[in-house]
Structure formats: C-alpha cells, structure tokens
C-alpha cells in the first residue's frame, strides 16, 4: 500500500504484496514515471505501463545493459517497452546497473530488492520500501536524471542521508553503519563474501555483539534473493545492495536506511520468524 500523506514510509514483505506495491505506484502516476529495470517478465507490470501512457503519463525506463542469461530477453524487452510509448535508455557505463526503484510524479518512490518477474513476485525472499520522504524522492530523481543523461560521476550531490548509492560511498556508509552496532547485527544475504565486511563482523562478535546471518536457503519456503540488514533492532537497510566486493564497489546499487519504528518492527519480526544459522557456521 502506498503511504498516505500523513505517513512517510511503508514496508512491503509478502510476495503478493510486492507486486501490488509496484502496480500501485504505477497506477498512482498522473504526470511522470521514472523506472529502472534489471529484469522484467510480468505482463501486468507492462500492462499498467501501457495504461499509464494512455492517460498521458511520461514514462522513462532506464535499463541495465546486461543481466546474466538475459541478453536476448533484454533486447526484446526494450523493443516492447518502447512500443508502449515509453522513453527508454540503457545505462551507458562500464559498471552494471543493478538498482531497482520507481518514482511516480516526483512524489512517491518504491525501492526494492526484487526484479519485476513472476519468480520474485511469487517465490523469493524480497523486500520493498515505499516512501513519500521528500528528500529521498528528490535524491532518486536526481540520481535517475544523472544516469539517464549518462554518468559523469559515481554519485551526484543532494542524495540525502538515507540513500545508499554505489559505487562510491556505499562501502563507507555500510561499514560505518555496521561499526555503529552496540547490540546486534542481523543480515539476510546469501552472497555475503566481502573480506572487509566479514572481518568487521568477526571483530564485532569478539566485542560481544550478536551477529546473525541468514544465508542461502535459510528462509523457509522462499528462494534466496533479497538482502536485508538490521542494526540494533532500530535501523534497517533495504535495496539492491549486497555484501560482496562487486556490489559495494563496482555496480550502480540503490538501498535505503529505514528508521521508521513500525517498518523496522515488521522486518525484525520477519527475521525472527525465519530459520537461521550463525555467521561462524557460514564461514566454516
């Protein structure tokens, strides 16, 4: 559900809810849609884009240049989306575009860990955050416009304090956040492998901080895909960023820091309800 005017953030966890959230943002647009696509195969998403264009919405879609196993599909998808009346561009940079977000009317935004595919809508562990935070929305618009024109710098100015954008400052922001932990660090990331992050987690464990990581297959009934970081039970990070060297240093990633008490409570509850194994077992 899109946050009401009186509520800034809303977290989306359930598989069917994630699809409804994407469709809701697209349907809400009356003037403009800015959308990034890494993978998309859901007919309803494409149908809603067509309907948005029919009601006069300007649609800009920024595609990744490549996605593993999707070379032919991306080519066909670009042609299809353009045929709907959308303006399309592929990210013109050597780095992979992995960010997953949409902005409607420069007012509401959705930042997600999931692709626009049936698999992610129905079967994966993924998370989305919907927000009306003016600073976040303005930051995403600035980032999109910069990437749309062609990247000149890794990170444009004015992104605000909540957005974590890679490459560039992402590693520093994430390491500082984990370093600030006083009680607990909880992570869902089946690709965790960055040496600096692993060393930091081990140091925090030696200081008595509870570090728990859910890896591949750790969330019952759901396929591993999305990433979630929780610090001290009061701060979360949701987005495309993973704790790998490539993601932290060499991809366009977008994540957001969440401190809304209700959103963080729901994410902590999801984590607590999942089966898990400690970091020491994953490193063995």
Overall description:
There is one protein chain. This protein has 10 helices and 15 strands. Strand 2, helix 2 (43-54) and strand 3 (58-63) form a beta-alpha-beta unit. It is of the alpha+beta class and 284 residues long. The radius of gyration is 18 Å and the shape is globular. The chain has 2 domains: 9-149, Endonuclease Chain A (Endonuclease, Chain A, 2-Layer Sandwich), CATH 3.30.870; 163-282, Endonuclease, Chain A (2-Layer Sandwich), CATH 3.30.870. The strands form 2 sheets. Strands 5, 9, 10, 11, 12, 13, 14 and 15 form an 8-stranded mixed sheet that branches. It has a 7-stranded mixed sheet with strand order 1-8-7-6-2-3-4, with helices on both faces. It has helices at residues 15-28, 43-54, 71-83, 118-122, 134-149, 170-179, 195-206, 245-249, 261-273, 279-282, and strands at 9-12, 32-37, 58-63, 87-90, 96-97, 101-104, 108-112, 128-131, 163-166, 184-188, 210-214, 227-231, 235-239, 251-258, 277-278.
